[in-house]
Amino acid sequence: MEDLVGKWSEAKLELLRKYLTGYVMVLRNQASKGIRGYEYIDGFAGTGKPKSKDEERYIDGSPRVALSLSTPFTKYHFIEISDWRRERLHALKQEFTGCDIEIYPGDCNEVLRYQIVPTLPYSSYKRAIAFLDPFGLALEWETLEAIAATRTIEVFINIPIMDINRNIRRQDKDQISEESRERMTLFWGRGWDADFFEETRPDLFDQTKIVLKRQSAKQVGNLYRKRLREIFPFCTVPVVLRNSTNAPLYCLIFAGHKKTGLSIAESIFERYEKMG
Questions:
Q1: pTM value?
Q2: Among 161, 169, 172, 112, which residue's Cα sits nearest to residue 137?
């Protein structure tokens, strides 16, 4: 079995690498100000070595990106629910023997809320960055609220635009299944339907209907950013990641508590968008 990734994933990983490089440099310089550690959290870690869909080659996944930095983190938290992926992650402990690596089985949301977040209160004088790249709508809004409440953890979130569309892309709101409604509530939070649907009356003789708004991937990403700003003071404008046919798949966004983190992420995102 293999994890297969496309070119958009390589772009995402390169943006992550550039941010992490700047992030650890800033925090290392702040060690004299009382910072006792800076940790990396990977919520959906995968195998650490996915295979490119387009070529017969393997690339460094997000765990390896974080482990390969010239300035390492003081601790690494890798969460993976899949048994076979987690087995491959364990090989990283033998390869990166100088790193403090902990691998967690189970659901990302439960592991974060009940095992990792409680170890990073503001009083710990630690800081962390969480990379959250969910499979479908597996990330829960309640998890982000718990992360934001610490004021010690920044996040890189890959918003699954295509999976959102699969769940709610219905012209009439009443056509959405109860299962999809519940999934969106867990992912987006309550009141998500107001972001995606609006009332309309085609003419004087028709009944009012609640129909889907016409919105681009960027607009959907900005709606999620608006939600994030309710719990994080600083959030970037999202970057849209597209496949080889130019269809939007994800929006990558940073959210955190420090303006320094925002400045690093904005600079990296702006350069990426200028390059097209």
A1: 0.92
A2: 161
